[in-house]
């Protein structure tokens, strides 16, 4: 579990790309202070497992499903990445619940500066558009952000100077892609409501005149 508060920017030191899998080594500082084998680290919002490390870098394996569903396949040696360690139960919770399980890839379609902020319009997959709401939360490349606009399959986010400087989103331009994780609470609510509606429709389809008579709702 993560919070979407990026701890530092790492740099890809080495990357081995196969047809469906990737092994990646990332240079870092802050997050390596207490790293252990098997720890979870979010890289651009993707929860990955540490398979090797030193006091200067860590290595992770990226499986086929993750390669297919995220933007990690676009990374190369020298690419910067957002890094966050999994949260401690006794730590501050500054962002929102982020699982590190990316829901889809979005594309930046517009980028504009307004005073001290930069607004991004991001096109999201149509299958995810119902999971966004005004002033709701979203994780973009692992960064916890607030949704300031929702138009069909386009959402608007705004970055303050600190976020522009300390996350990879600040360097991205129109046409670039980003990892998107929708708000976990919204996904649970939508899933539960969908299941309840489906069950209601199924139960209702079994109600017949004979059923109503047998259960005392209609007099014979």
UniProtKB/TrEMBL annotation:
In the record for this protein, the Lumazine-binding repeats are positioned at 1-96, 97-193
Which SUPFAM superfamilies does this chain map to? Riboflavin synthase domain-like
Please name the InterPro entries in this protein's record.
ATP_synth_asu-like_sf, Lumazine-bd, Lumazine-bd_dom, Riboflavin_synthase-like_b-brl
Note the PROSITE patterns from the entry.
LUMAZINE_BIND (PS51177)
A GO BP term, please?
Answer: riboflavin biosynthetic process
Top EC class of this enzyme: transferase
Domain (Lumazine-binding) spans 1-96, 97-193
In UniProt terms, what function does this protein have?
Catalyzes the dismutation of two molecules of 6,7-dimethyl-8-ribityllumazine, resulting in the formation of riboflavin and 5-amino-6-(D-ribitylamino)uracil.
| Protein's name in the database | Riboflavin synthase
Q: Which NCBIfam families match?
A: PRK09289.1, PRK13020.1, ribE
Catalytic activity reads: 2 6,7-dimethyl-8-(1-D-ribityl)lumazine + H(+) = 5-amino-6-(D-ribitylamino)uracil + riboflavin
Q: In which pathway does it act?
A: Cofactor biosynthesis; riboflavin biosynthesis; riboflavin from 2-hydroxy-3-oxobutyl phosphate and 5-amino-6-(D-ribitylamino)uracil: step 2/2
The GO terms this record gives for MF are:
riboflavin synthase activity
ATP-binding found in the keyword field: no
Query: Which Pfam families does the protein's record reference?
Result: Lum_binding (PF00677)
What UniProt keywords are attached to this protein's entry? Repeat, Riboflavin biosynthesis, Transferase
Q: Which organism is it from?
A: Salirhabdus euzebyi
Q: Which EC number(s) does the record attach to this protein?
A: 2.5.1.9
